[in-house]
Please model this.
Amino acid sequence: MAPGEFFYKPDDYESERASNSYLMALVVIMAGLPLPIVNLIASAIFFLSNRRSAYFVRWHCTQTLLAQLFTLPVNAAGLYWTLGIIFDRTPVSNGYVSYLLTIILFNLAEFIATIYAASQTRKGNHVVWWFFGPLTELLVKA
Amino acid sequence: MSRVAAQFALLAILFFGLWFLLSRFDYMRLLRVDELTKEAEHNLAGLILDELQKGGDELGSDTVLSIVGGIKERLCAANGIADSSITLHIIVKDEVNAISLPDRQLVVYTGMIGYCKTPEELSGVLAHEIGHIQHGHIMKRLRKEVGLSMLTTLAGGDAGSEIARETARFLSSTAFDRELESDADAAAVHMMAKADIDPQAFADVIFRLSREKNDIPKRLEWLSTHPNTADRCAEILRLRKQETFHNRPLADEASWSRCKKSLRRKSVSVK
Model:
């Protein structure tokens, strides 16, 4: 996830827009923790509104959206499992507690990575995440 | 593309590997989940029982208690259930009702004992309630209907008597889900057969209750909490055919008569 050079130097406006895509994800995490779909919807709206933006902005919006897309089923499964316990369809088990801890750790990692990416893109630096970066590379054309 | 696939595979391995490693710890013991649940159930049962006892005195040592206790003992012994694990409470009240509470507490009103014509009929009612206890239906239902937060407050002992009263009223006057009722009926038929009691008696008492509901609707609380009588009787009789048992009497005539006489002395309506 090291910051690097983009193939062109994004201007200040582009850096701000790209950074905002991460900030948007960051802000909605608060609302999205109980309802994971909120994160995805917010990122999708931001992605759609930046479809015709500069390449740098589109690239980072896509990376954020993909990260949200992959986090959604993981968090939704946790939510579904928790609701099952609350409504007593399933008992609390070791599997449940360990799953909850795992998704908390993954969400925490994503949270930290998002803050880092937001600050770096604001400076015009390019941040390529593990897996989501190369996938974005395949999807977003210059 | 292969780079994406490789990184995805590594990410998946990391996720499931972490989940697997974390699941090696015994959180149930670390978080005392079972202990806390038992403690909460115990406190909850105490509160509800206090509330029910306000409606009538609890019988101490008595002919009635020994007969009903004997029936419970036979059902438990035949089905590999520790008799001492289920606490029986008989409350002097004219209402025809029996209620299973959290913490494996079983409450039978004298109205129900008086209503049953034979000890076998009473054993059907007891077996049904023991079925609810054995399947953990009571906490399941309370969690679903009353809510976890209220249960926690109740268990913590901070709740007002109003909440305890409401929970007691809820347990004694509303029905379980149809599915839970069917489970308890099936358990009752099986338990009775194992104890060499003809499950026909269980169907008989339900049928009689439904037939007489128009005459004494107020007293027949147990029926209102156990609806769909015709279907239930048919299902009980169908399940009965699948069981093998050698009918052995539960109590001799003299003991049952003594039990009824004792109830009459307590001004309970007796069949």
Remarks:
- The interface with chain B takes residues 74, 86-88, 92-95, 97-99, 101-102, 105-106, 130-131, 134-135, 138 of chain A (CB under 8 Å).
- Residues 114 and 135 of chain A are 17 Å apart (CA to CA).
- The mean pLDDT of chain A is 81.
- Residues 55-86 of chain A form the longest helix (32 residues).
